[in-house]
């Protein structure tokens, strides 16, 4: 590892250590300002996300992840930040600067404070940090490579912009819309049920790692899972806007007499039906006759899946090529996870 | 005002009468459409997916003169729109077309592969067929593989100065260009009817229109667009730019997809919500799954709004 890379790792590790303390002034200030912004973050989910991510951003963790990988051709990497869940762009920032590139991120309107505050803190510790935030127009003017997430049409626009600015397709890391799926077999323990609730509801169902669809054996009674959902809401209350956002969907299901269940105060919604992801905090319950049927669906939709979560014992029965995780891991991605199955560090080192 | 009056007079509507007609339709549908009867009034729009799950009618579905069926989706469920009166549908099609394009005649050609398989169940085929019958000359018609139909139409249009209108699904028109480039006559227009997601790759609307203009030998301004769906009896047209203008009897709003009672400020993306008086016997207030932006009296379509998009992994929603 180069000395400057090691110094940066140390600086980032120290900042993360500061942020692990809930009473850290900068963290508290950033959280307060973030909660005042128009987003669907709750105080509890924010604390969870910061704690979970900062716990991994240690010197050892960073060194294991980066493993000395570094570019010899540093360039300006533009990152279009989505800001749909807290600190969603942290991994991209870390990967860009630790591989030796210059980070040029757009500031998410929904979460404009957290990541920039963390970056500022790193800059205070590591002189000469090559990272800044700018409007997207400025980003496009300066970027030599781009990282973005979006729908097919959004990514088509990004591709068009990149082409018009002579940024080769190989220098664009584009991540599509994805969602998480859980597969149950009815033998889930209480812990598994509780983990499923966290996987589905933590960030109000937002983010590509949230479980949006549950495959369950036909006739499996969902009551114990719903009980866990309700209990989870006791610890992680829904955002104030969630019941309003679910209200129309519940009315839709009521009007069409489609089977569904919901939490007290409409803090979540679960509907039985065809395997189509619904809106945030609205989980689709899909019944299956055999696991073969589930595997067929998962294989056919692999391009749209960020992860497939099951109880640990069931993991071995599903094809290994699927993005399998144990229940309870969806909202706890490791530092070195590959969004959309793409290795961000490898992409950056190949620029 | 009665629902029959709305059905008879909506195409001649004056702006001041819109709210009266809309109120009549709302009241009537609440009383006669069993699904809407159960749907709370505080939700101004019914998600368009409802057409996949129920016959949304204010009359016995078996009395429908036509059932429009959408093309398939991943789940295999298709929307079904039970049309009480085909004459009403065709009147909406004709009146707005004439207001936008003029009285004709036109050499009107339809190139709609895939949709053709659906025949009368395709609202798009039904619409273009109606336009050909009403505004088309003898050289008008549909074609799929027989490109001589288009060749002859081009020759005829150039010789007689009859404006050529080529209606086509985006992916089909691009496939047509792979055979060879064309040179449409002066005054010709392409009206692409959506379907920008080709079997090869997604493309932006702007890029699509450039490719069509270049391939068919016309200016980009001569590439127009039609916005329609089987769940709506009316259509909107974009006349050489990105902004669609609806007919006076159809109002399009851009709303927060999760809480459609909230309208988005002009220029901010959201879900397109439509109130179509021509849907007076089915469901008039529809929340579409299209992402759009309000542009003055019109709207721009940015793409599809799949439920996964609501999960927020999209910087576009941030307006960066």
Concise overview:
The complex is a heterodimer of chains A (351) and B (320). Chain A is of the alpha/beta class and 351 residues long.
Largest sheet composition of chain B: 12 strands, mixed
In total, how many beta strands of chain B? 14
The backbone outline of chain A, from C-alpha atoms, is: globular
State the end-to-end CA separation of chain B. Answer: 47 Å
Overall pLDDT of chain B, averaged? 89
| Subunit organisation of the chains | heterodimer
Structural commentary:
The complex is a heterodimer of chains A (351) and B (320). Chain A has helices at residues 3-19, 25-35, 43-56, 59-66, 90-98, 114-125, 136-142, 152-164, 190-201, 223-235, 242-255, 291-300, 312-315, 344-349, and strands at residues 76-79, 102-105, 131-133, 145-149, 172-175, 179-183, 211-217, 260-262, 269-272, 282-288, 305-310, 324-326. Chain A has 351 residues and is of the alpha/beta class. A seven-stranded mixed sheet of chain A has the order 8-9-10-7-6-11-12, with helices on both faces. Chain A has a five-stranded parallel sheet with strand order 3-2-1-4-5, sandwiched between helices. The two termini of chain A are 19 Å apart. The model of chain B has no long low-confidence stretch (mean pLDDT 89). Chain B is globular, with a radius of gyration of 19 Å. Chain B has 320 residues and is an alpha/beta fold. In chain B, the strands form two sheets. In chain B, strands 1, 4, 5, 6, 7, 8, 9, 10, 11, 12, 13 and 14 form a twelve-stranded mixed sheet that branches. Chain B is built from ten helices and 14 strands. Chain B has helices spanning 3-9, 18-32, 34-38, 50-53, 86-101, 115-118, 123-135, 148-160, 170-179, 205-216, and strands at 46-47, 66-69, 80-83, 107-111, 141-142, 164-168, 189-192, 223-227, 236-238, 243-245, 250-255, 270-276, 285-295, 298-304. Chains A and B meet through helix 8 and helix 11 of A and helix 3, strand 1 and strand 14 of B.
């Amino acid at each position: 590892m180069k000395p400057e890379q090691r110094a940066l790792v140390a600086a980032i590790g120290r900042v993360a250590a500061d942020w692990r303390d809930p009473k850290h002034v900068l963290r508290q200030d950033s959280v307060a300002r973030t909660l005042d912004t128009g987003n669907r973050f709750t105080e509890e989910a924010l604390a969870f996300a910061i704690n979970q991510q900062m716990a991994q951003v240690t010197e050892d963790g960073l060194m294991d992840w980066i493993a000395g990988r570094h570019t010899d051709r540093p360039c300006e990497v533009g990152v279009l930040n989505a800001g749909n869940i807290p600190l969603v762009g942290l991994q991209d920032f870390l990967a860009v600067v630790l591989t030796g590139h210059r980070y040029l991120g757009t500031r998410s309107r929904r979460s404009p404070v957290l990541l920039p505050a963390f970056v500022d803190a790193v800059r205070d510790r590591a002189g000469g940090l090559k990272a800044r935030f700018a409007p997207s127009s400025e980003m496009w003017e300066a970027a030599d490579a781009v990282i973005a997430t979006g729908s097919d049409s959004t990514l088509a626009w990004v591709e068009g912009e990149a082409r018009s600015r002579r940024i080769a397709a190989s220098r664009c890391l584009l991540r599509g819309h994805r969602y998480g799926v859980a597969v149950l077999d009815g033998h889930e323990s209480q812990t598994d049920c509780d983990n499923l609730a966290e996987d589905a509801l933590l960030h109000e169902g937002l983010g590509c790692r949230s479980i949006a669809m549950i495959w369950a054996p036909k006739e499996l009674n969902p009551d114990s899972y719903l009980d866990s959902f309700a209990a989870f809401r006791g610890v992680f209350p829904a955002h104030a806007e969630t019941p309003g956002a679910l209200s129309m969907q519940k009315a839709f299901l009521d009007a069409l007499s489609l089977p569904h269940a919901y939490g007290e105060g409409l803090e979540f919604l679960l509907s039985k039906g065809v395997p189509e992801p619904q809106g945030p905090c609205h989980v689709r319950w899909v019944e299956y006759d055999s696991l073969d049927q589930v595997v067929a669906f998962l294989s056919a939709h692999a391009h749209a899946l960020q992860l497939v979560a099951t109880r640990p014992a069931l993991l071995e029965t599903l094809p290994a090529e699927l993005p399998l995780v144990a229940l309870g891991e969806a909202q706890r991605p490791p530092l070195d996870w590959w969004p959309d199955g793409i290795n961000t560090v490898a992409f950056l080192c190949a620029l | 005002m009665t629902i029959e009056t709305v059905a008879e007079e909506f195409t001649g509507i004056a702006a001041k009468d819109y709210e009266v007609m809309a109120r009549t339709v709302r009241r009537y549908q609440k009383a006669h459409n069993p699904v809407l009867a159960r749907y709370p009034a505080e939700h101004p729009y019914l998600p368009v997916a409802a057409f996949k799950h129920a016959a949304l009618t204010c009359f016995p579905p078996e009395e429908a003169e036509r059932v429009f069926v959408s093309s398939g989706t991943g789940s295999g469920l298709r929307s079904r729109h039970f049309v009480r009166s085909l004459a009403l549908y065709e009147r909406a099609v004709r009146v707005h077309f004439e207001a936008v394009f003029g009285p004709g005649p036109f050499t009107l050609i339809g190139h709609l592969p895939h949709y053709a398989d659906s025949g009368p169940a395709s609202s798009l085929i039904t619409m273009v067929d109606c336009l050909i019958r009403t505004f088309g000359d003898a050289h008008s018609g549909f074609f799929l593989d027989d490109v001589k139909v288009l060749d002859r139409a081009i020759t005829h249009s150039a010789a007689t100065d009859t404006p050529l209108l080529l209606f086509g699904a985006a992916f089909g028109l691009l496939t047509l260009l792979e055979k060879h480039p064309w040179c449409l006559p002066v005054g010709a227009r392409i009206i692409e009817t959506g379907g920008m997601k080709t079997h090869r790759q997604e493309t932006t609307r702007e890029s699509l229109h450039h490719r069509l203009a270049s391939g068919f030998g016309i200016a980009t301004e001569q590439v127009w667009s039609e916005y329609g769906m089987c769940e709506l009896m009316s259509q909107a047209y974009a006349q050489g730019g990105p902004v669609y203008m609806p007919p006076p009897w159809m109002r399009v709003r851009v709303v927060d997809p999760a809480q459609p009672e909230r309208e988005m400020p002009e220029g901010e993306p959201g879900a397109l919500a439509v109130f179509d008086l021509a849907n007076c016997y089915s469901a008039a207030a529809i929340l579409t799954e299209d992402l759009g932006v309000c542009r003055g009296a019109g709207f721009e379509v940015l793409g599809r709004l799949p439920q996964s998009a609501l999960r927020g992994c999209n910087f576009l929603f941030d307006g960066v």
